[in-house]
Amino acid sequence: MRFLQQGEARNRTLYDLQDRVRIQGWLVPASLMPDDLADLTVQRIGVRDRLTMDLASDLLDDLRDAPQYLERLTAPMPDAGRRSAFHR
Q: What digits encode the pLDDT tens for the residues 20-44?
């Protein structure tokens, strides 16, 4: 699923998508790539083998709804200090 095409400048980033699905209880971190691909941000979803079809369906629904919410925003999301996915 592609959320933001390369070169597109909109009111959304993968960090915004990360935050939006986190509100729904999902941890889908956005991560920067190594220096040779520093302009690329990716998201990976890791699941346990106990993931049910119902939970997978809920996750996909939330991932489909989040971009629609973000597209309705009239201004970019605040971006101060949000460049790493999670801190331990």
A: 899 889 999 988 888 888 888 888 8
**DSSP letter (8 states) at residue 77:** P
Instruction: At 35, give phi and psi (nearest 5°).
Output: -50, -40
DSSP state of 30: E
pTM of the model: 0.68
Secondary structure letter of residue 41 according to DSSP = E
How far apart (Å, rounded) are the C-alpha atoms in residues 86 and 19?
11
pLDDT given for residue 2 in this prediction: 54
Q: What is the number of residues in the chain?
A: 88
* CA 76 to the chain's CA centroid: 15
